[in-house]
TrEMBL record:
Keywords, comma-separated and alphabetical: Isomerase, Metal-binding
Keyword Transport annotated: no
Pfam families xref list: Glyoxalase_4 (PF13669)
EC number: 5.1.99.1
InterPro entries, sorted: Glyas_Bleomycin-R_OHBP_Dase, MeMalonyl-CoA_epimerase, MMCE/EMCE_epimerase, VOC_core
Gene Ontology molecular function terms on file: metal ion binding; methylmalonyl-CoA epimerase activity
Species of origin: Adhaeribacter swui
Segments forming domain VOC: 3-131
GO BP annotations, alphabetical order: L-methylmalonyl-CoA metabolic process
Xref: CDD domains: MMCE
Protein name: Methylmalonyl-CoA epimerase
UniProt family annotation: Belongs to the methylmalonyl-CoA epimerase family.
């Protein structure tokens, strides 16, 4: 894993959260994108090397909607950049980690993604991200 790629925050109202984070970070989001496969709409902020991804559900059956119902707004995941997501997934599986998807899937911000189950990472959902070429 190379670096923290972004921090994902689940929000109920994306427009309201965008206003809050724009004021907090003193910058506007550089991208808003719907990810139909995940039933979310995302908004990305960048300050220095740090990226923040706000995630709002577009459907009440989405993982984010369920997360919000169970835990409320807040930290959803930490994403790490990887050069080769397939190799990293294999390494983690061999080390005994449970992956939430068997193959990489398309994510926001031009990434291939995979999630590691939080039960094995001290309750923190970990996302692997590889830039799509």
């Amino acid at each position: 894993m190379e670096k923290v790629e972004h921090i994902g925050i689940a929000v109920k109202d994306l427009a309201r959260a965008n206003e809050l984070y724009a004021q907090l970070l003193n910058t506007q989001p550089y991208k808003t994108e719907e990810v139909p496969s995940e039933k979310v709409i995302t908004s990305f902020f960048k300050t220095g090397e740090t990226k923040i991804e706000l995630l709002a559900a577009t459907d009440e059956t989405s993982v984010i909607a369920k997360f919000l119902q169970k835990k409320g707004e807040g930290l959803h995941h930490i994403a790490f950049a990887v050069d080769d997501i397939q190799s990293e997934m294999q390494r983690l599986k061999q080390a005994g980690f449970t992956l939430l998807n068997e193959t990489p899937k398309e994510g926001a911000d031009n990434k291939l993604i995979c999630f590691v189950h939080p039960k094995e990472t001290n309750g923190v959902l970990i996302e692997l991200c590889q830039e799509r070429t």
